[in-house]
Amino acid sequence: MVSDASTDAWRHRLRRAVALLALAVVAAFVWYAFFAPAPSAAKAPPAVPATLVKVASEDVPNFLLAVGTVQPLASVTVKVRVDGQLERLGYVEGQDIKAGQVLAEIDAKPFRAQLDQALAQKARDQAQLANAKLDLERYTRLVELDSTSRQTLDTQRALVAQLDAAVQSDEAQARYAQVQLGYTTITAPISGRTGARLVDPGNIVHASDAGGLVVINQIDPIAVVFAVPGDAVQEINRVRQGGGRLAVLAFSRDADKLLARGELVLVNNQIDVASGTVQLKGRFTNQGHALWPGQYVNVRLQLGEHRQAMTVPAPVVQRGQDGTYAYVVGEDGKAEMRPIQVLQIQDGKAVVAKGLRAGETVVLDGQYKIKPGLPVVAGPAAGATAPR
Hints:
This protein is an alpha+beta fold and 388 residues long. It folds into five domains: 1-36; 50-60 and 308-378, conserved putative lor/sdh protein from methanococcus maripaludis s2 fold; 64-72 and 215-305, Efflux pump adaptor protein, beta barrel domain (Elongation Factor Tu (Ef-tu), domain 3, Beta Barrel), CATH 2.40.30.170; 80-104 and 187-212, CATH 2.40.50.100; 108-183, Orthogonal Bundle (Helix Hairpins), CATH 1.10.287. It has helices at residues 2-34, 109-144, 150-182, 233-241, and strands at residues 48-54, 56-78, 84-89, 96-97, 102-106, 185-187, 192-194, 204-205, 214-229, 247-251, 258-267, 277-284, 296-313, 318-320, 323-329, 335-339, 341-346, 349-354, 361-365, 376-378.
């Protein structure tokens, strides 16, 4: 009997414990369902600081860009025209000279002797001609008196004509000798700057020598030769035919310094079929000698203006596998990666043909931290030094 009572008591306690456990589970469920706080929403990503600018609308010069070579406007290799000994030079290497200035002199004594000989021959023939003319007058009077034959008169006339031709030949020889004598003094054919002397005084020089005495380069004014795509020829000709002068700007190779401003003077008469480019030439005043023959320069040929073009600083333009793009910050403050078409980039400014509107906000610096859809706020430029 005692064992049965103990078993009943144990069972009663077990049922009570199970009931209490079930009640606790139900109470916990009810509390969680009605009183537990709702789970917090996913935390929004923080805004990315970046340097922001507005898209501007302005008139921008329309340039064709090229690399050019500075060349003398004219270049002359001064050579001798007669053979002889070079006696002296009348210039200093690297000197600026004027056209007509004496550059060198060749020993003139042999050429003066030739001139004197030609003049003496002319004088002799002139004397014979004068005597023959007097005889012709006498024979003419004798024929009228029937004191000599007409054949004698004709022979005398022929002699006068022959001596007259001899005098003319002597005059030509004298002029030729005078010209040859003049060639012993060599003058500058153009104004410009002399280079290094190629022959020293004392040497025998010949008209057939392959070299020369010196090279003169005209460097004020000076020329820059460059090439542009052949497709640009029609636009260039259109502007020129309208009476417009095309400005040509020469910059240093780092494109930071304007060296000279000139104008277009030549569009070559054919397009190079190998490269598809056409050669152009600009003429520049060069008083300060900022341009020098053989120098490479960056050239800009101005063809007009882009009217009311969309412009942004050049760093706004980014390049990816699909082309150029920019990060645009919308009214909701989030970044959008937008494809753009760039017409030109110069002087740190990009001209955008498609993809942007005036007044839109774009990212100038800090693009490496931005992804499409992230919020962006104006902040210091990436890599800027924090104020102390």
